[in-house]
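Team,

Forwarding the record for the chain on the shared tracking sheet. I've put the sequence and predicted structure together so nobody has to dig through attachments.
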Amino acid sequence: MKDTILVVGATGMLGKPVARQLRQDGYAVRVLARNPEKARAKLGDSFDFIRGNVEDASSLEKALDGCFGVHINLKGGPRAEDFERIEHRGTANVAGAAARMGVQRLTYLSGAAAFEENAWFTSIKAKFQAEAAIRESGVPYSVFCATHFMESLPLAVRGKRASVIGKQPHRLHWLAANDYARMVSKSFRLPEAANKRFFVFGPEAWTMSEALQKYCSIVHPGIKVSSMPIWLLSLIGRVSFNAELQFIAELLRFFEKVGEGGDPTEANELLGAPTTTLEQWCQQQRKAA
């Protein structure tokens, strides 16, 4: 029988590639979903959908019954209490249920800035605490501290405008989600990947402005990249009572101060280094458009 892996957050931008890669690599993939019908519409019929959520211990235990592994890809926010409730406590709930149900491996998407010295920032604090809960569960784990994903670049385009918010001076090794998904899947097959914290970087370093300009030149050649001060985005969020915009402004203010951390050498050697360049990824997006 195929090993079964539960994916928590499979319908999201970064959870979907992992679910599909696991299925491609021969695993039986189970998807935890609040609404299985909507999840099936997004992912197709080749997954086993089970109703539940990370705040319901009984549904987690049901979903994890008979599973070899679990992958956690949660998105909290935009408010501090939501990060605590979903990213931290939700992850802790999954890890605890995994331990009770005898799950053998757990993987989790963290971030390349998830260090104790950065825990003053709400979302980083939640990830840092989530990692601690995973370690305390006793389930063998692989934590993926990933840098910025190329898939986030289209979010900077709105209509006929593309904007870099703030100065964003750091050079980042932009990562394709498919490369990350391949590494996650491989980690389930390698005993030596257990109880590791992997830093995952793409093959090239670009500033946010450079990356967005490259993306627009290939995928949206009629759009020019402009800049917007962070204070203006924050103001728009406040006057429109849009908590998501207010959080994005704070997140980008954080990234003005903090770049990548960690060393990707171990991840590259054990799991295979990401190879997709920004040029290649953009060409793929252009063809798919």
